[in-house]
Design a protein that fits this description.
30% of the residues lie in helices and 26% in strands. It has 457 residues and is of the alpha/beta class. It folds into 3 domains: 123 residues, 3-Layer(aba) Sandwich (Rossmann fold), CATH 3.40.50.720; 121 residues, NAD(P)-binding Rossmann-like Domain (Rossmann fold, 3-Layer(aba) Sandwich); 101 residues, Regulator of K+ conductance, C-terminal domain (Alpha-Beta Plaits, 2-Layer Sandwich), CATH 3.30.70. Helix 9 links the parallel strand 12 and strand 13.
């Protein structure tokens, strides 16, 4: 597949990395020559310097025979025009655009992106995606990562193990025997900064970050078994009244039983937020000021969510909140290097908006019968939900007879609408929907397991 990625920033470069690793022909376009040079030096991709919305630039990028254009620059208007040019001039079949401004996404303007106006096939809103992730974190506070699959029937969760974890030093195979009715599988572990797929003889140790696929109904029991607790988050303080903060505050307001206070440093923005929120108390002040945190009631709050556009403000306000006795702190961070200091600062979870955007874009890029994709960390691995077709090489085989690519593992199967955790004798049938985890090097091979042969058509 030939793909043009517009934007060589963190989102664009990460998308280019994923696609090039899977053997696609990728060309990255950006008006910043240095960013283009960095991407082409680091990845097996071509680069074109220029504005992605200009027809001559897209022509040099090979738009005449491109299969897909992904517009992920920092400018909404550039992304929109790039998709328009790709459609009207070059007839590119699939066009994906990252759009941030709420004004473009309002329901009353939904006709704007129809095919006869501005033909964009998929619109990705980073703010909307981050708001969804934030609300999921607040609903499952024991997990540092959580994403639903199979229509919510299962959850992919990340848990940080401490010294009090009751299943430390227990082989995973034995763990399955002890909790035979538990519908949960440990699929991967991050240890010493590296993510790898687990096996039956593996043991878990304090400090491990484990990734599980668990039936949603068994989620709380799974968390309990690992010695953790889902704390209730009803009184929530939101730091930052930007687009993400406002979205989260609105969702909190619309959720029965939840209450919200907001801290915003800019007075005009604080007044704007107060006018557009119904039940939220908005305080004008700096969240790094202990007096403002005290005025917001940080000692009595269940959770603080820091969603400003400044990573350091987010991390430090969460650290101050933790010191003041707030049990749950969630920070927005664009810089993955801050992951190392989050736990020492008392921060429960970091949300990386760029990683969230990448996962959403990948969901629409995968070929075959891939239905959903979720990328972890810095793209170290992916959770893939895909449907088995009649032409798939795994159809009709037992799990024990399938040669899964090294670095991949099956976590759940939905067959005829019923959820099952896989065993060696489980037969993979046509129409089954599988959830798998794969490290980055194995993703392309997993995708091939669900490919649709030309004979199918």
């Amino acid at each position: 597949m030939k793909v043009i990625v517009c934007g060589a920033g963190q989102v664009g470069s990460q998308i280019a990395r994923h696609l090039s690793d899977e053997g696609n022909a990728v060309t990255v376009v950006d008006n910043n020559a240095e960013l283009v040079r960095q991407v082409t030096d680091a990845l097996d991709v071509a680069g074109v310097v220029g504005f992605a919305s200009h027809p001559d630039v897209l022509a040099r990028a090979g738009a005449r025979d491109a299969d897909m254009l992904i517009a992920a620059t920092s400018m909404d208007e550039v992304n929109m025009v790039a998709c328009q040019v790709a459609h009207s001039v070059f007839e590119v079949p699939t066009k994906i655009a990252r759009i941030r401004a709420d004004s473009y996404l309002a329901p009353e303007w939904s006709d704007l992106f129809q095919r006869d106006h501005m033909p964009i096939d998929v619109i990705i809103s980073p703010e909307a995606e981050v708001a969804k992730v934030t609300m999921r974190r607040l609903g499952s506070t024991a997990a540092f990562d959580i994403e639903p699959f199979l229509g919510g029937a299962v959850d992919f969760i990340g848990l940080k193990l401490d010294d009090d974890c009751p299943v430390i030093n227990t082989p995973l195979r034995q763990l399955s025997e002890l909790f035979s009715t538990l519908r949960a599988i440990v699929v991967a572990v991050r240890r010493d900064g590296k993510v790898r797929v687990t096996h039956g003889d593996d043991q878990l140790f304090p400090g491990d970050e484990v990734y599980l696929i668990a039936a949603h109904e068994d989620l709380n029991r799974t968390i309990d078994i690992f010695g953790l607790e889902n704390l209730s988050a009803e009184r929530i303080i939101v730091v930052g009244a930007g687009n993400v903060g406002l979205r989260v505050a609105r969702q909190i307001e619309s959720t029965p039983g939840l209450r919200c206070k907001m801290i915003e440093r800019d007075r005009a923005r604080a007044e704007f937020a107060a006018d557009h929120l119904e039940r939220t108390i908005v305080l004008n002040g700096d969240a790094l000021n202990a007096e403002i945190l005290a005025e917001a009631g940080i000692a009595e709050a269940d959770a603080i969510v820091a969603l400003t556009n400044d990573d350091r403000t987010n991390l430090l306000s969460c650290a101050l909140a933790a010191q003041a006795g707030c049990p749950i702190s969630i920070a927005l961070s664009n810089d993955p290097t801050f992951e190392r200091i989050a736990v020492p600062l008392g921060i429960n979870a970091l949300i990386n908006p760029r990683a969230t955007t990448v996962s959403t874009i990948l969901r629409h890029v995968r070929r075959g019968r891939v239905r959903a994709v979720y990328s972890i960390g810095r793209g170290e691995g992916e959770v893939i939900e895909a449907q088995v077709m009649a032409t798939s090489p795994i159809a009709g085989k037992r799990v024990r007879d399938i040669h899964f690519p090294p670095g991949s593992i099956i976590g759940a199967i939905q067959s005829d609408g019923k959820l099952a955790m896989p065993h060696g004798d489980t037969v993979i049938r046509v129409g089954d929907i599988m959830v798998m985890f794969a490290v980055r090097a194995a993703v392309h091979h997993v995708e091939q397991m669900f490919r649709v042969s030309p004979e199918f058509f």
